Amino acid sequence: MHNLKKSLLGVATLATAFVLPVGLLGGAPAVAKPDGPSGAAAGWQPKTLRQAAPDGFVIGTAVAGGGHHLDMPYPDPFPNDRRYRHLVGKEFSSVSPENQMKWEFIHPEQDTYNFAPADAIVKFARQHGQQVRGHTLLWHSQNPAWLEQGDFTAEELRAILRDHITTVVGRYAGQIDQWDVANEIFDDAGNLRTTDNIWIRELGAGIIADAFRWAHEADPDALLFFNDYNVESIGPKSNAYYALVQQLLADGVPVHGFSVQGHLSTRYGFPGDLQANLQRFSDLGLSTAVTELDVRMDLPAAGASPTPAQLAQQADYYQRFLEACLAVEGCDSFTLWGFTDKYSWVPVFFPTEGSATVMTEDFERKPAYDALLATLAAARS
Ligand code: 9MR
Predict the structure, then answer these.
(1) Which of 98, 104, 292, 323 is an active site residue?
(2) Ligand 1 centroid to 357 CA: how many Å?
(3) Is 98 in the pocket of ligand 1 (CB under 6 A)?
(4) Is 292 known to be catalytic?
(5) What is the whole-number distance in angstroms between the Cα of residue 296 and the centre of ligand 1?
(6) Which residue out of 91, 184, 232, 323 is catalytically annotated?
(7) pTM for the full predicted model
(8) Catalytic: 184?
(9) For the chain, give me the number of helices (H) and strands (E)?
(10) Could you identify the atom of ligand 1 that is nearest to the CA of residue 64?
(11) Helices within 72-171 (DSSP H only)
(12) Domain 11-380 architecture
């Protein structure tokens, strides 16, 4: 399957040129029809992203709920928006709880777990034949006040983390394919977060290996990942992961994956060495994944429409990200951090930017959606 994925990458570019309106790709040649070695032009055309994806390659979305949504005027999206739910099931073969498995959400008081929203997502995934990515177990952010402001000894904190991982990973054992065990543990300079990450600050760097060991004990079948942003390129931050992962593997720690979130902006150039970066982790024997892709852009005013040129640039970024993953052996999971602007986190955190997802607020497909569909279909055929 991987060789097939690789050999068809050239076709993906042609197919995308076919689907995008002429001119959107900045003068890309109009191609009459995709013309792959195995007859991509013949007959059946996939209508959704998951239909288009090659065998063994999952295309995912974050499942909107919790986090910034709690401050918005609409009801919690996943349980309440039927059209949204329908598209989550129809378009995607993997789901990631956007906030529903984070500490503050799933473990709001020391003696209380709030499993219902996460249970509902896992159940939905089973009903729709979808994988689940668990997010996340050891992070500096979105921790409950009882934890961050508690007055615990190191021994107590260690027991708290172990219990949490054992309880949460154990509850979903066999139902979660990949866990983001450690999330965003390095800063952009490649230094461990020794001040804002409570676990590393209070327990030292060794707690990271323990977190992976405990997760592995609780679910030996789940692939266990490091996950971060600004690690698309080869640089200080991804180098820090590269060194840490080698050390942990040498120590026999059950680390199985390295994932790039992919929160891009068209303000910045495309990370052209993404494929090479993923490849070096793959060469260590790890799985790789894209876990939170979105591509935001500057807008003249909140909610304003992007120009065709902006949409074309965005489509190009989405497509190249997907192509890089498809080209790397073991990069089999590709997740969008939401698929509709209706629920995107971006305008809340970047007030002058937006339109970061592949569908409008009304679920209209953008050129970026068409680019992903065509690229997947070409890799599949
Ligand atoms: O999309 C999430 C949003 O709803 C939350 O309010 C926010 C709080 O930090 O977290 C967002 O998701 C983040 C993810 O968990 C980790 N990587 C960065 C994502 C975007 O901030």
Answers:
(1) 292
(2) 14
(3) yes
(4) yes
(5) 14
(6) 184
(7) 0.90
(8) yes
(9) 16, 10
(10) 4
(11) 77-80, 82-91, 103-106, 116-127, 145-148, 154-171
(12) Alpha-Beta Barrel (3.20)
Per DSSP, what are the bridge partners of residue 353?
298
Q: Is the peptide bond before 335 cis (omega within 30 degrees of 0)?
A: no
Q: Judge whether 134 and 167 are in contact, CB under 8 Å.
A: no
Q: Which of 159, 204, 181, 169 is nearest to 150 (CA)?
A: 159
Ligand 1 neighbour 61 (Cβ under 6 A): no
Segments making up each domain of the chain, as ranges: 11-380
Q: Judge whether 240 and 190 are in contact, CB under 8 Å.
A: yes
pLDDT digits (tens, 9 = 90+) for 79-117: 999 999 999 999 999 999 999 999 999 999 999 999 999
Q: Is 142 in the pocket of ligand 1 (CB under 6 A)?
A: yes
Q: Of 50, 83, 79, 24, which Cα lies nearest the Cα of 377? A: 50
Atom 8 of ligand 1, nearest CA residue:
67
18-66 pLDDT, tens per residue? 333 333 333 333 333 333 444 455 678 999 999 999 999 999 999 999 9
Query: Measured on CA atoms in the order 360, 363, 369, 370, is the torsion positive or negative?
Result: negative
